[in-house]
Amino acid sequence: MTDRDHERMTQPRYAGIPTFFRTRMSEGLDDVDIGLIGVPYDGAVTNRTGTRHGPREVRNQSSLIRVFHQITKISPYELARIADLGDVPIARPYALDEAMAAIGAFYRDVVGRGIVPVSTGGDHAIALAILRAVGKDRPVGMVHIDAHADTGDEYLGSRYHHGTPFRRAVEEGVLDPKRTCQIGIRGTVNDRELWKFSADSGMRLIDMEEVEDLGIPAVIAEARRVAGDGPVYVSFDIDSLDPVYAPGTGTPEAGGFTMREALRLVRGLRGLDVVGADMVEVSPPFDVGGLTAFHGATVLFELLCLAAEAFAARRA
Known about the structure:
This protein has helices spanning 3-9, 54-62, 76-79, 96-112, 126-134, 165-171, 196-201, 208-214, 216-227, 259-267, 291-315; strands spanning 24-25, 34-39, 82-87, 116-121, 140-145, 175-185, 204-207, 231-237, 273-280. By secondary structure, it is an alpha/beta fold. It is globular and about 55 Å long.
């Protein structure tokens, strides 16, 4: 982190142009180790729209996040060159297949240059496009924190929507189901076997009842065991939080994580070989006082710290 970076990032919270965590904006991909990327797309939602506005508001709320982690004492900006790479350009957002292809092409370029992507959605369908890039050379493991397993199948005539990205990622060979742990699943369903693919493919699904029975430290230990030593993607859906903490999301489910639990859970993944991460499904039109976007930005900082420490460990 240069003196100029520090000056920009520590000016008053209300000042300056909002980028993710007030990092430098980079339209190019040179001199970047970790790219903070917005994906303003919600063409694959099955319920309330509005997550296309997520990246902009999360950027705004991220101005409240400071440069050092209170618990770990690290600054990710001292471990890697970090920049806001802007939003993925999507020329045809009304055509789902073309939009997904555009997102995928952007991430292939980013990952191909050795940049670790840390993304803000958008709806959860974007994770498939990202995994196609991150898992191109070998399938990655995943720690997935969500109210929904997102391993459903066709819905209303489409095989691609925000309830099915991880089923498709397994089918395409970019996600290793046996190294995938899904945490916090809950809520009502219209099909008793909606998430059957998770179990059948070998994913470890820890529903919210089991989370409560085990406790957060044991859940962390299980997630780490499943993920193992290989490359890992971390995907955090804001609806994993209880709606009290995240009213601004498309598919809220009662009985979710508190923010304290969520932060401890994500922080507990330190030391995994994180090669990418996302925080998705913030929908500002349904938010209250920017609460969901602020909590999303707070989680995003935790993910950035994970990615920065993993990057530094790989480089050492």
